[in-house]
Design brief:
Number of strands: 26
Strand content: 15-25%
Distance between the termini: 55 Å
Helix content: 25-40%
Shape: globular
Number of helices: 20
CATH superfamily of one domain: Glycoside hydrolase family 3 C-terminal domain
CATH class of one domain: Alpha Beta
Structural class: alpha/beta
CATH topology of one domain: Rossmann fold
Bound molecules: alpha-D-glucopyranose
Strand order of the largest sheet: 9-6-5-4-3-2-1-10
Length: about 750
């Protein structure tokens, strides 16, 4: 629809109809006859009884195509204004073909395949009538106690920017304006800094300097906006005392003015009403006013806008204008999706033709990304890959577990998942492998706190002692033990903060008992976060971080265990040695008294007296079945002006016996600046595949714009001076090093 017609449509709406466009409800408000709705969900939500559901602008998490057709058809028949409904859903890392969780995907450092994953998710959503997805989540995370690290691309700003851009492009396409066929609208979240709650406790306060916010947390959102994200979602948390959902500086001055976001700002679930609980709005009317003034366009699943906005804006021209602006943005989103021309976006035709859900192409892409997201953390004496002649005992609650999709796979069907056992049986015959559970997934005391998910946990039917005895017998009868362990998917994700993020005690006990048998142990860890694996690593001969690897996870893992695939994953988030180190991350500041190894136990240094500073596994770390050597071939110059670059060539050799891919990482340290800079900042990286014995080269160019940061003046700019460059295969393994200087035009 032409923009002028859109404005005419806006003008034609009554105030009640305008406000309705800013309300998002769930499908149950539209299912039954109106009386049932009024006495049921409408009353429960606190909507005034005269609220007309056929003014509602969008629906949350209805994902059945036939139901979408029925709701949209009924709605358009019943509504006076005939503005179609928007259907929005949490399709975070896959619709029915589920990819690895985002934290795992980021460990692939393969943003081309991450974009492809998003594109496949969009295609499957498109086929079933979803218009908007609440992805990408790009909250930077440094605290694995927080359950939602599983949804994040990790601790690093560069990876978050690349994840944001790739996911938006995959979901929405790269063209501005209309959202084409097979694509859906992306909603970047949660604005802002939701990933930094105090103590890693869900929904807790976020306090950080504006410098920290701008330097580390905002660039991911900015990248999504620059990539064209049509929506942004507000965060639940306060930011420096003001709830994000009511924060005018954050949403209008920063997001809309400075970051140039002109799309739809939707609140998180019930976050508008929660302004009251925060102690920011004293009542619903104030909450409505504060949220509208803070630029929130859509009130997700509360009655605040619906009940309060008409009276709040009455007689106030400024607020009336804010309302019109908000409604216009919602109408424009619907127009960009082509809903005025076809409210079903081709859904009816698709239902006849058949969808592409779980196609072989989609499953192949999911397996490929899973293979690259899995991280090999330890491999003593090259125990892996396994020989197909080796008799293995596959033991643990994840041996045959289908529930490996993670918490935000709302359309994923666990029955579609390839289990580890099924994956292994594609490589070996069943007489090569014994399988048993070995332990309960969780101890009883850890079940109740999972709240509504308790009923989804596996029912443990066998006594633990019996399970253990069976495991010991299987282990003794095998050459190698493959232990499939991990936290429950319900121990991570939203509301899944843990004070002690370790393996469940039931499984730690199993591992300890089996480690006494003198058998080689391969430990595979399923988790939505970096667990504290220090004790696990001591007992394992080989250790693999599987995350929640998605629909094809079992096949991907088996391909790695038997060497069909050489693992190449590199950690996107640091693994602490102990909870006491949290938050521990690679891009830390040096402090005035760094804890230098040569100083030994010198007391007055930045250190602990009961723990090392170094993490168990650092950012960027991941082993391979082969070995790589890299050397600095050339550095074009040691001094650059603003328009010049340092051009670098690195030679990489595969010195082992397996073909493999390595990720060469380039870190920079700005030696002296108006704001102290981290000891290392990931500035670029290259991935190179080399056959055994092969040598190749990778090139980097360091330009002035890559040296910019928020200085003491809070301006984003580089500062003249000296820089250290570190190149290697993790944030701690950087054998290649040189320095260069940035000079002004005159000086150089
Ligand atoms: C949830 C999450 C958000 C999600 C929304 C809709 O509480 O915070 O990420 O998109 O509600 O389900």
């Amino acid at each position: 629809m032409h923009i002028n017609l859109l404005l005419e449509k806006l003008d034609s709406l009554t105030v009640e109809e305008k406000i309705g466009q800013l309300v998002q409800l769930t499908g149950d408000f539209f299912e039954k006859d109106l009386d049932t709705v009024v006495t049921g969900p409408l009353k429960k939500l606190g909507l005034h009884s005269d609220y007309n559901v056929y003014n509602t602008g969008s629906i949350l998490n209805v994902t059945d195509p036939k139901r979408i057709i029925r709701l949209q058809t009924d709605y358009l028949e019943q509504s006076n204004h005939k503005v179609p409904l928007l259907f929005m859903a949490d399709i975070i890392y896959g619709y029915r073909t589920i990819f690895p969780i985002p934290l795992a995907q980021a460990c692939s450092w393969n943003f081309k395949e991450i974009e492809q994953a998003a594109s496949i998710s969009a295609r499957e959503c498109y086929d079933e009538g979803i218009h908007v997805t609440f992805s990408p989540m790009v909250d930077i995370v440094r605290d694995p106690r927080w359950g939602r690290v599983m949804e994040s691309p990790g601790e690093d700003t560069l990876l978050a920017k690349k994840y944001a851009e790739s996911t938006v492009h995959g979901l929405q396409g790269k063209q501005p304006g209309s959202v084409p066929q097979d694509k859906i609208a992306a909603c970047v979240k949660h604005f802002a800094a939701y990933g930094a709650p105090v103590a890693g406790r869900e929904y807790n306060a976020v306090d950080m300097s504006e410098h920290m916010l701008r330097e580390y947390y905002l660039p991911g959102y900015q990248a999504a906006i620059d990539a064209g994200a049509k929506l942004v979602m507000t965060a639940f948390n306060t930011l420096n005392g003001i709830p994000a959902t009511g924060n005018e500086w954050l949403n209008r001055d920063l997001l809309r003015q400075e970051m140039k976001f002109d799309g739809v700002l939707i609140s998180d679930y019930a976050a508008v009403e929660e302004l009251i609980m925060h102690g920011y709005a004293e009542d619903a009317a104030t909450a409505a006013k504060l949220a509208l003034m803070a630029g929130v366009d859509i009130d997700m699943k509360t009655a605040v806008y619906a009940n309060q906005l008409e009276s709040v804006i009455s007689g106030n021209e400024h607020l009336e204008q804010l309302l019109n602006d908000a409604v216009y943005r919602v109408l424009k989103l619907k127009n960009d999706l082509g809903l005025f021309e076809d409210p079903f976006r081709g859904l009816k035709a698709t239902l006849q033709q058949g969808t592409r859900i779980l196609s072989d192409e989609h499953k192949t892409a999911a397996r490929s990304l899973a293979e690259q997201s899995i991280v090999l953390l330890k491999n003593e004496q090259d125990l892996l890959p396994l020989s197909k002649k080796t008799k293995i005992s596959l033991i643990g609650p994840y041996a045959e577990e289908h529930s490996t999709l993670g918490m935000w796979a709302i359309k994923g069907d666990e029955a579609d998942t390839v289990t580890l056992k099924e994956g292994l049986l594609k490589h070996i015959d069943s007489d090569q492998m014994s399988v048993c559970r070995g332990a309960h997934l969780l101890p009883d005391h850890a079940r109740e706190p999972l709240g509504k998910y308790v009923d989804k946990l596996p029912v443990e039917t066998v006594n633990e002692d019996i399970l253990l005895q069976e495991a010991i017998r299987h282990a003794n009868e095998s050459d190698v033990v493959v232990l499939a362990l991990g936290e429950s998917i319900y121990q991570s994700g939203e509301g899944g903060s843990r004070t002690n993020p370790t393996l469940p005690e039931t499984q730690a006990k199993l591992l300890h008992e089996l480690s006494q048998l003198g058998k080689k142990l391969v430990v595979i860890v399923y988790s939505g976060r970096p667990l504290i694996l220090t004790e696990v690593a001591k007992q394992a001969d080989a250790l693999i971080q599987a995350w929640y690897p998605g629909t094809m996870g079992g096949e991907a893992l088996a391909n790695i265990l038997y060497g069909t695939v050489n693992p190449s994953g590199k950690l996107a988030m640091t693994f602490p040695r102990s909870v006491g180190q949290i938050p521990v991350y690679y891009n830390e500041l040096n402090s005035g008294r760094p804890n230098l190894p040569e100083n030994g136990a010198y007391r007055f240094a930045s250190r602990y007296i009961d723990e090392a500073n170094e993490p168990l596994y650092p950012f960027g770390y991941g082993k391979s079945y082969t070995t790589f050597d890299c050397s600095l071939l050339s550095v074009s110059r040691k001094e650059i002006g603003p328009d010049e670059s340092v051009d670098i060539e690195v030679s990489v050799s595969n010195t082992g016996r397996f073909d493999g891919k390595e990720t060469i990482q380039l870190y920079i340290r700005d030696r002296f600046a108006s704001v102290t800079r981290p000891v290392k900042v990931l500035t670029d990286f290259r991935q190179i595949f080399l056959r055994s014995g092969e040598t190749g080269t990778v090139q980097f160019s360091i330009r002035e714009d890559m040296l910019r940061f928020y200085g003491s003046s809070m301006k984003y700019q580089s500062e003249l001076g000296d820089f250290e460059v570190y190149i290697g295969t993790s944030s701690q393994e950087t054998p290649l090093h040189f320095s260069f200087s940035l000079r002004s035009e005159e000086q150089s």
